[in-house]
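Question thread 4412

I'm putting together a teaching handout and wanted feedback from people who do this every day. The idea is simple: show students a protein as raw sequence, then show them the structure tokens that encode its fold, then repeat with a second protein so they can compare. Below is the first pair exactly as I plan to print it.
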Amino acid sequence: MVSLEICCGSAEDAIAAWHGGASRVELNSDLFHGGLTPSIGTLKIVKQTAPDLKVICMVRPRESGFCYTDVEFEVMLEDAAELLKNGADGIAFGFLHEDGTIDIDRCRQMLAIIGTKESVFHRAIDVVPDVLSAVDTLIELNVTRILTSGQKPTALEGSQTIQHMIARADGRIEILPGSGIRPHNAAQCRELFRTPYLHASMHTIVCDSSTEHRPEIHFHGSTLLPENQYKLVQKKDVAEFIRQANL
């Protein structure tokens, strides 16, 4: 038997996954941008409603890559500590240097906060230059689990690399296949990987009609940025705005 971890973007998602039989969820916000840190309120409602559901909380402060500023890193440590204090069973995270290699020092600091709870190095692993060396590094750091698509868009496309990672791990760290795993290929993935868990997204489209009477107004971004870009407030722009507004 293989168990299912569901990627969730809300308390509603996580509770539905629990009712459907999932034994573990990865709890996020903003799945459109790959999954960001969920709110404490989201976590508390999930744990109150589904106390026997294992909840791994994503800690990721923004979209794009995984080389964070000092401020972003401090926020991540604070978020992890608060999530664990409020019932998270583990933390999913990933720290890379600009060259794509694992930032060992930052990982150690996060792992010190996680302590005896579960630690998951997320799909940042899928952009490292040497994935098997990265597996060795995470084993040495005593990380619980690696979530991966085998450095391809989907786990099936990356199945050969995932199998190499499983062989390299040799039981010393759990390898969790994820991305593109759906009901129609779940049995195939189970046979290919023979891992205790598979990681899947199970979302359908629903409608909220409350904005329909003003269709010209948008609350989402007007353009989708490339994967290596994200938006950030710059102090010079704020200073210029204030200067112009007070001429």
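The second pair follows. I'd like the answer to focus on this one:
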Amino acid sequence: MATVRANGIELYYELHGTGEPAVLIQGLGANVTGWDAQLEPLSRQYQLIAFDNRGAGRSEKPDEPYSIHQMADDTAALMDELGIPTAHVFGMSMGGMVAQQMYHRHRARVRTLILAGTMAGGPMATFPNANVFQQFASNGANSIAEAIAEGLKLFYSEKFLAKNKDWLVKRSLGNMSLMPPPHALQKQVMAVMAFNAHGLLSKIRVPALVMGATNDQIVPFPNQQLLARRIPEARFVPFEDAGHGFLTERAVAVNRAVLDFWGEHRSDSVPAS
């Protein structure tokens, strides 16, 4: 657990395991705790570099405009500071947008891409139902615990919540200190809304794995279907009846898919082209 100055800001990062490196990029307002279900299983075989994007967690939160390409540059700069020339890049939600821009701006750094619960943006994107925005807005009138409980309904299936609600609420309450301040969350939202890499998908030439959940209310499933169609020879792994939080809800299956994919494209010495 440490911070390093990269691309002009302080970024918080964690290193887990040893071996071929893999960079993990989390989503909107999220932080490294979003990888809790992946860190131990994946780090048995790989060195994981998990970090908080600008504006999130324990990284710096400048009050200035953010962009997805800027966060991709942050990621590349972090790799520079850690002496990592190339890595598997795994992005979740907004992190998947950053991962796409990592390829387009720093393609020699990217060995493989995993794009999970994400989109390419632009006019072809499918955005959340209006009810989702209304739910977020109405949560402002609830207590913190009530707001968390209601918010969890947007991220997980009813079946998963029925068995895990108390644990999920406790985890969320424990991570409250890592929530981004309003100005930083707004900057990340604006970066997401301005993102459009749809026209670049067909130019991706590294092995790519696309994962999505069929009941995702945050980044709807058609977005992942589009990514899988447009990225040449992309592998597509859907998770039936799961929500946006499928990294947790379907952790065993997610981790198996990731390890299978990385295992097919291991190389500790040959740079990606």
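Top answer:
Good format. For the second protein you could add a caption like this: The chain has one domain: 2-128+179-264. The chain is about 40% helix and 15% strand.
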